[in-house]
Amino acid sequence: MNRLLTSTTALSLLVMTPVFADMEAANAFLDNEIDGLSVLTREEQEAEMQFFVDAAQPFQGMEIKVVSETITTHEYESQVLAPAFSAITGIQVTHDLIGEGDVVEKLQTQMQSGENIYDAYVNDSDLIGTHWRYQQVRNLTDWMAGEGAEVTLPTLDLPDFIGLKFVTGPDGKLYQLPDQQFANLYWFRYDWFNDEKNKADFKEAYGYDLGVPVNWSAYEDIAEFFTGRDLSHLGVEGEVFGNMDYGKKDPSLGWRYTDAWMSMAGMGDVGEPNGLPVDEWGIRVNENSQPVGSCVARGGATNSPAAVYAVTKAIEWLQKYSPPAAAGMTFSEAGPIPAQGNIAQQMFWYTAFTAATVEPDLPVMNEDGTPKWRMAPSPHGVYWQEGTKIGYQDAGSWTLMESTPVDRAQAAWLYAQFVTSKTVDLKKSAVGLTFIRESTIDSDYFTERAPRLGGLVEFYRSPARVQWSPTGTNVPDYPKLAQLWWQNIGDAMSGAKTPQEALDALCADQERVMERLERAGVQGDLGPVMNEPQDPEVWLSQPGSPKAKLENEEEEPVTVSYDELIQSWQN
User: 98 and 64 share a domain?
Assistant: First the structure.
């Protein structure tokens, strides 16, 4: 991706630099690549670079391998930052880019075999419950005070990272370091919503104002209103749809649901960053954070009425209001569709698509470089209540395995800190738009760029963002449990099973895995201790999740003006 290589000359200089740590390469990097795009002064940047030069001395000529999934941010790291780090430090880094599922598979293989496949992984913080229970990754709190002390950047400034809660175990220890984050938000055509004819017609048809939907009832009305609507008065050609989603039986279908769809519906308990004792996977834990059940009969909520409601609505909207091809698409295939110009709104839209959706000449862009679309907080379902998480935030995070030799882990830790340092982070965020630091979000650069990013900066500066979080610590073995979701939800999507039947099978499958973990005792006192099954009514009649079925799952639709919403955040 040549567009990421913002300074070919600089990169050539760095690659040609001899393999030993030196400040000449560091200054070339600061001059040509960073070029002032940092929250630090030049003097402060040079001080950070001097630390890397000095700390790397014991590792001269060492070759290390790290791995991450393939997204724009990591492409920039692999193609630009890794060669720069190698030139500056003399540590030769190979930064591999592979699929997200492949990253988890490699990490799982290293856990099981003890063989050092990679010296560091950028893997999702969704595995925090796995890492905390198996204790096969270095907890960074102890690492930075012990074996990693001499190679820990004095200006790392952990409080500046916005996602530390996501990578902290119930023991209060930090198990990973965030490298990139992106949220799953509501996306809509701001220009269509502000068109006078559309506003008048919607008000006449539904009796309330067209605006950002606060709840699912309003989302559904808007989806119905725009699907098949003639927008030729706005110059829109072709068929228009009120919803976009995907439904192919593929691993990415699992993320569609584990990535907090159920919490958006209101399935889990109140709590930040995740519901307790029942989370957005429907897994219940006891007071010691040990999983005790997934099915309602054991106090879980994976097959509860709220979960059934969540899956039913998603299928209904996919079938009624989405392009016919969407049902056969995967996550990556569906992602670019809204930018093609015929989608009114999307409930489940990842901000990782922002960079690709603000490209010039797209049908969703104005001539002045501002977008015709905006992003906003996701609407919530009828079972949702205040204080419950309402969306997902991906937090790809640096992870050091215990099976990695100390010296290699130290060298890899230097690279992890280099690509997340304050010197580098503003420039990296300008390329990938996946924010991890408060100082970057609050920078003058992003204040100036905000109008061209469709609400991304406003969201990350808002108090709303705390309700978006990754999978929490209730999930005892992410690799084993995650694969169950797409297989079972896929049966509901295809019509092979009803949503209730599919979720009954899913919770039973999850419990079988947790029962095996309990019998094996591989997670010690942190692993599952399953409840005895009871009549589901015992649990449904108690406060909190699992919640009993509502007589009426349609609530009064509510919308809000986008401009007023943004103003309320800024005030």
Answer: yes
pTM exceeding 0.85: yes
C-beta of residue 111 within 8 angstroms of C-beta of residue 454: no
pLDDT of residue 21: 62
Residues in the chain: 571
- Whether residue 71 contacts residue 434, with contact meaning beta carbons closer than 8 Å, is answered with yes
Angle of helix 422-432 versus helix 406-420 axis, rounded to 10: 60
pLDDT tens profile 478-517? 999 999 999 999 999 999 999 999 999 999 999 999 999 9
3-class DSSP state of 311: helix
Please say whether the beta carbons of 398 and 120 come within 8 A.
yes
- What number of other Cβ atoms are within 10 A of residue 175's Cβ? 26
Residues 403 and 488 in one domain: no
Range(s) of the domain holding residue 163:
2-175+394-463
Distance CA 140, CA 167 (A): 10
Average confidence score pLDDT of the chain: 94
What DSSP character marks residue 380?
B
Cα–Cα separations (whole angstroms), residue 133 to 127, 282, 530: 10, 19, 16
The DSSP secondary-structure symbol of 504 reads H
User: What pLDDT is stored for residue 8 in this prediction?
Assistant: 38
